[in-house]
Amino acid sequence: QVQLVESGGGLVQPGGSLRLSCAASGSIFRFNTMGWYRQTPGKQRELVAAVTSYGSTNYADSVKGRFTISRDGALNTVYLQMNSLKPEDTAIYYCNLRQSTVVSAYDYWGQGTQVTVSS
Fold this sequence. Notes:
Layout: E1 2-7, E2 10-12, E3 18-26, E4 33-39, E5 46-52, E6 57-59, E7 67-72, E8 77-82, E9 91-100, E10 105-109, E11 113-117
Parallel strand pairs: 2-11
Antiparallel strand pairs: 1-3, 3-8, 4-5, 4-9, 5-6, 7-8, 9-10, 9-11
């Protein structure tokens, strides 16, 4: 089992910044992908950004140039630096860890942290 603990959400004005953190613990494989998803009421959860154990990153088009994902492999922690925040970034942000065996892929989720961008 894997546990994910998130922190760093909150209320920020448009144009402001926030940094989310997610610490993973438990049975973590050497190779995995950690990322952040977000969800608003009535919509599907969507990928915001992800980073592999090798450092390869992937971003949603809507956040490119504003958000930066990074990870500390030794601490199994992933960060999401969010700059130039917009009201449409308001959502619950969920940390995700995905790891695979030969036969199965496993997804683990954090409890979610609220990000509200409003004046």
